[in-house]
Write a structure and sequence with these properties.
By secondary structure, the protein is mainly alpha-helical. It contains 6 helices and no strands.
Amino acid sequence: FRRQLGLPTLQKKPASKFTIIREFIRVKRLLRNKTAEDIANLPELDDERYEMGGRMNEYLAACIYRVEPTMLPLVIFQMVTTSLKHGLNSSSSPAFARLGMLLCGPFGKPHEGREMAKAAELILERPGTGM
């Protein structure tokens, strides 16, 4: 469905460690020097295609771990990248919370994970955003 919207899609195969690390580095570059407050103050998303794609990824992330666990980080990275490049939407808070989970767990960066969890909380608290 994401391809029909003209959005990037993931391949239907297990992700290699190299691919996961490469995408992690891309997200880290986008996050460079951004605090939780900076992230929470990003503009709202105004493109319906990305809104729909974000919702699809949110539902996908909820079940993909049982089917193909190596793809979960890629879905999370895609959600975070969309929020950082195009603006915040209703899927942004879960995206940053999940990124925090990855940072605290497999990537061993609990301080950065806590910052992403704080960003997720601040996004939820934004007044008047409809999130």
